[in-house]
Amino acid sequence: MAMDPHSASELLKVVKPAAATDIATEMAYLNSSGSQEAEEFSHDVVKEFSTLLSGNDQDWGLGFVKQMLDDALGMERSAKAFEEVKIRLDHRDPFAPICGTNLYELAAALEGEPTQVISLVLAELSAKESASLLGMMDDDQRNDIIRGMAGATNVSVEAKVRVAKVIQQRLCELRADGQAAGGNAQEAQMRKISVLLRGLPLETRSGMLESIKQQNEETGAMVTKMMVLWEDLPIIESRALQEALRQADPQKLAMAMVNADQKTADKIKQNMSESGRNMLYEESLLITSAKKKEIDEAREILLDDLRELNEAGMLDFETEEV
């Protein structure tokens, strides 16, 4: 049975405001958590209402709940009841709004936070989410976080609410910054996560990437791609670069090197055979003009070969600076 806010409010009109608040809280909680288990209440009518709700697929977000309370209690009493509902939700599951957040966004929000805060947040996430975020931390920090997670059960609800609010605010600010900058801030953070991941052991990295892809396939693909960019060529270790250059089409490679900075050009030439350098030089003489799109496409061909080596764990970097 699906109910609109008006129908639900008609049912609430027969109960006292306190019971209406209990019911509204239960509806909002079941909606946000996906749980099918209602909390135990002392009011018989709330128990009956909660039993009815537990098998229903209706969307009872806060908007639904507020409209229902407005219709049932009137605007003045509804405002007080609605604030009480939000407070109860915060105390029952402070981290519900954070669970399911994209990992790279959450990692950005946690950056610079004390180990105790990070430990508390990770302790409230799913095992898969916590493992993914732990994989992005350095070894020393990871050990401290794990120890902190073990003691997170002793943290008061009030402290959890405060921490959850801080992280939610950070997430909102990061998303706003990303939108204001046309997505540049978000891309910069994805790049940072990509560099962190590429420095992990292959098995760990693959597990982290799979977790990201399960949350958002597009994000996972972007993170994978941003592990190896054109700007990384000067810091790619020689053996893997030589392998990729041996497979490169001289014509495409010459196009890719148009307008390349000196450091990148030198790195490529130093890792080619003499005959390969001669062919590259001859092809470069044939390029009289080049569009940016042609240059970018040619560079992506070489980068895709390097990304394949990276996915196989055969690509190393001389530095991990972003």
Description of the structure:
By secondary structure, the protein is mainly α. It has 3 domains: 88 residues, no CATH class; 123 residues, Annexin V, domain 1, CATH 1.10.220; 84 residues, Annexin V, domain 1 (Orthogonal Bundle), CATH 1.10.220.30. Helices cover 70% and strands 0% of the residues. It contains 18 helices and no strands. Helix 10 crosses helix 11 and helix 11 crosses helix 13. The longest helix has 24 residues. 28% of the residues are buried. About 2% of the residues have low confidence.
Low-confidence stretches: 53-57
Count the E strands.
Answer: 0
* Average pLDDT level: 81
- Might you state the CATH topology name of the largest domain? Annexin V, domain 1
Proportion in β-strands: under 5%
- What Rg, in angstroms, do the CA atoms define? 27 Å
Count of domain modules: 3
Keywords:
mainly alpha; 18 helices; Annexin V, domain 1; 0% strand; 322 residues; single chain
Put the structure in a nutshell:
By secondary structure, this protein is mainly alpha-helical.
Strand and helix map with partners:
Elements: H1 5-12, H2 17-33, H3 44-53, H4 62-73, H5 75-92, H6 103-110, H7 115-124, H8 127-134, H9 139-150, H10 157-180, H11 184-198, H12 202-215, H13 217-226, H14 238-247, H15 250-256, H16 262-270, H17 274-285, H18 292-311
